[in-house]
Amino acid sequence: MDAVRVNPPSLYGDVPYDYATVAPPGRLVFTAGACPLGADGRVAAPGDLETQTRQALDNLVAALEAAGSGPAHVLKTTVYVAASERAQLVRAWDVVAERFAPARPPSTLLGVSALGYPDQLVEIEAIALVPEP
Fold first, then answer.
1. Separation CA 87–CA 75 (nearest Å)
2. CA distance linking residue 125 with residue 15, whole number of Å
3. Which of 37, 51, 68, 128 has a Cα at 20 to 30 A from 10?
4. Beta bridge mates, 22
5. 1/49 Cα distance (integer angstroms)
6. CB neighbours (10 Å) of residue 75?
7. Which residues contact 12 (CB under 8 A, 6 or more apart)?
8. What is the pLDDT of residue 110?
9. Residue 126 host element (H or E)
10. Using DSSP, how many helices (H) and how many strands (E) does the chain show?
11. Overall pTM > 0.90
């Protein structure tokens, strides 16, 4: 049984994500927030939002794959951006949307005042499905 994407016709249709996803029981993966850390444990590319977003996505995909899932099976994301201006949130979102395309998992995009590591600008968590073998 696969996940079912839900887009009610009564909701505004021109959004870059699905409104909801229904998953079969017992096959969900919940990730921690993926940070833009390199293999050395340092935040990648201080000050570069797009590069940090790509690194966080790479780390997220690695965690998903280790759990038996992957980007095509993501049911929902939450993207945190240390930014006070909407344009900065959109810059991070554009990288996220490009990575997941053509899928459009339901997502929440938030501007926050600070994240856990010095110089960290983005963090991304996901809920995903482990596909049937």
1. 25
2. 20
3. 128
4. 4
5. 37
6. 21
7. none
8. 96
9. strand 122-129
10. 2, 6
11. no
